[in-house]
Write a structure and sequence with these properties.
26% helix; 7 helices; eight-stranded antiparallel sheet; 267 residues
């Protein structure tokens, strides 16, 4: 991996290059990533290709964009690997409403070794932690985004809970990024795909979250305060993407027919 693109990546997220691949550096990089790179699915509604390999770096670094778990987590894995971290790609299943479990490899997360322990690193779920989670602990892990807890699910898998609610299940058996190609194809083409049923762009702030659902439904969480409003014009939508997410668009993505409240939860 060329140092130039990785230096640009660090500049993109406002991060300092760690002196060594330790936990302190990992915490810093993960936090800066979450505060700088949006969790978004605009390209699903702009008709653009989705890349999981090193081509995703052009989107994240050069074009100042974000993406879903199949994009931002691989991108972060390339950065971490270039900095000397040992990184595995872990497949997961997303917990659905009603106690259902989504398909295998419906989620992609990272296992990163630092300071002699394995850490769950995830910047592509919307409700993921701000800092790495200790994969060996079954105690509550406090985070700025809430209380996380890992629970054994059998056969080496672990369920991730936030404030007592299940988020996803992750396997301890690493796979390759290219193994997700069939699932990515499903997300890109199936009418049942949550990424096609909803249009969203969301980014964490130091004290909350800013989300744009569809091209018009803005919401903000700042500490204990919550606010919502509707953007009144295309000009306001373009400005919102630029101001809140750093994204400059030539055209607005098409809103899904099912409405802006369906699909992936970002809060």
């Amino acid at each position: 991996m060329q140092d130039g693109i990785m230096d640009a990546y660090l500049d993109r997220i406002g991060a300092t290059r760690p002196d060594r691949p330790d936990l302190a550096g990992l915490r810093h990089l993960m936090e800066r990533h979450l505060l700088s790179v949006p969790f978004e699915n605009l390209d699903y509604h702009l008709g653009e290709d989705i890349f999981m390999d090193e081509r995703v770096l052009e989107k994240i670094v050069t074009k100042n964009r974000g993406g879903g778990c199949y994009e931002v987590n691989p991108a972060l894995s390339f950065l971490l690997t270039s900095l000397g971290y040992e990184v595995d790609i872990l497949p997961g299943w997303v917990h659905r409403p009603g106690g259902l479990l989504g398909p295998f490899q419906g989620h992609l997360a990272l296992r990163v070794k630092a300071d002699g322990r394995d850490w769950l690193v995830d910047v592509g779920f919307g409700r993921n932690s701000r800092f790495p989670l200790d994969l060996s602990s079954r105690e509550a892990q406090q985070d700025p985004h809430g209380e996380y807890r890992l629970q054994d699910a059998g056969d080496g898998a672990v369920d991730v809970y936030l404030n007592g609610n299940p988020l996803y299940r992750v396997s301890d058996r690493p796979v390759r990024i290219e193994d997700f190609a069939p699932t990515l194809w499903w997300y890109r083409t199936s009418p049942e795909s949550s990424f096609l049923q909803a249009l969203f762009c969301s980014i964490r702030t130091p004290d909350g979250l800013v989300t744009l659902k569809g091209n018009t439904q803005m919401s903000r969480v700042a500490g204990s305060e919550r606010s919502k409003h509707t953007l009144a014009s295309e000009e306001e939508s373009f400005e919102a993407y630029r101001t809140h997410f750093g994204i400059s668009l030539d055209k607005l993505p098409e809103e899904p027919a099912g409405g802006v409240t369906a699909g992936v939860r970002t809060e």
